[in-house]
Structure formats: structure tokens, C-alpha cells
Design a protein that fits this description.
With about 160 residues, the chain is mainly beta. It is built from one helix and nine strands, in the order ββββββαβββ. It has one helix at about 110-115; strands at about 10-20, 25-35, 45, 65, 65-75, 90-100, 120-130, 130-140, 145-150. The strands form two sheets. A seven-stranded antiparallel sheet has the order 1-2-5-6-7-8-9, with no helix packed on it. The protein has a two-stranded antiparallel sheet with strand order 3-4.
């Protein structure tokens, strides 16, 4: 359309690695977003909250066109009862999340452009019951955040 700004080029990447040994599973997930210039608010990746760095509330570490988030998870499924082949759809998780958002010099929002970079990390535990997840995370400042929601296809 005439007079409407075009969206800046954005590169998003996701990677996942999962390893199982007997019934426990270790998974490593990363998510990155890189933008060569400022993004509209709705396209900027938030840092903090469920699906990001769980030891913080949603957007607590800010939003930006460039960010990197990583999660390491150790999953322990509840074993089946004696004589059964399959156990209940319940698992216990231990996880560690970390994320970084560098200063965004291309931001259209002048306050955001002046903002310093942000980073955060957390560790916690969670319970999965079928598609429902319950996570408790403690960030590096010692604050606790609790998240309840739907688990992704990989249980995270």
C-alpha cells in the first residue's frame, strides 16, 4: 500500500537437541532473533516469562529486535506401575534458562534505543501432566516466578 513503511528484514532461528537415556531425557533449545534495524513493537521478541527466561515475568527483561534465549531441560517421566507398559502422562523437569538482549540502536522508540542491554538467567523445576505444565523458577536475583500453561509438543 502507498505510504506504509515496509517491515525490516528479520532473521529468526530455532534449534533443538534432545537426548534420551533409559527414561530420562536431556534437551537443549535455543531461539535467536536478529534484525538489521528497529522492529514494530508486535514483532520484537520479549525476554522473560513463560517460553523465555522463566525466572522473570513477561517482558521484564525488555523487548528487542535482537535477542538470544537458551534452555537446558532434564525430564524424568513417572515410571509405569508394575505390570504396565506405559506410565501416566506425568513428568518432572529440572531446567535452566538464560537470555540476552543487546542495546537496540535501531529502535524507533527513543527510550528503547537509549536503554542498556539486558540479560537474565534462572533455574527451576516443573511438573507436566499431559499438556498442562507448572513451572517454578528462581532468577539470579533470588526472586521466584511461577508459570502455569500448556506444554509444547516437546513437553517444554
Amino acid at each position: 500500500a502507498w505510504g506504509e513503511p515496509s517491515s525490516p528484514p528479520v532473521r529468526r532461528a530455532r534449534a533443538s537437541l534432545s537426548r534420551s537415556r533409559e527414561s530420562a531425557r536431556v534437551s537443549l533449545r535455543t531461539r535467536a532473533q536478529f534484525s538489521s534495524r528497529g522492529l514494530p513493537e508486535y514483532e520484537a521478541q520479549p525476554l522473560g516469562g513463560d517460553g523465555s527466561v522463566r525466572g522473570y515475568e513477561a517482558d521484564e527483561l525488555g523487548k528487542g529486535g535482537t535477542s538470544l534465549v537458551g534452555t537446558l531441560t532434564l525430564t524424568f517421566p513417572v515410571p509405569p506401575p508394575p505390570g504396565e507398559k506405559q506410565g501416566p502422562p506425568v513428568s518432572f523437569n529440572l531446567f535452566a534458562d538464560a537470555g540476552v538482549r543487546p542495546r537496540d540502536p535501531w529502535s524507533a522508540n527513543s527510550d528503547e534505543a537509549r536503554a542498556a542491554s539486558s540479560a537474565g538467567a534462572c533455574a527451576g523445576y516443573g511438573l507436566r501432566f499431559g499438556p498442562i505444565k507448572f513451572d517454578v523458577a528462581y532468577n539470579i536475583l533470588g526472586a521466584r516466578a511461577v508459570h502455569v500453561g500448556l506444554a509444547g509438543a516437546d513437553g517444554v
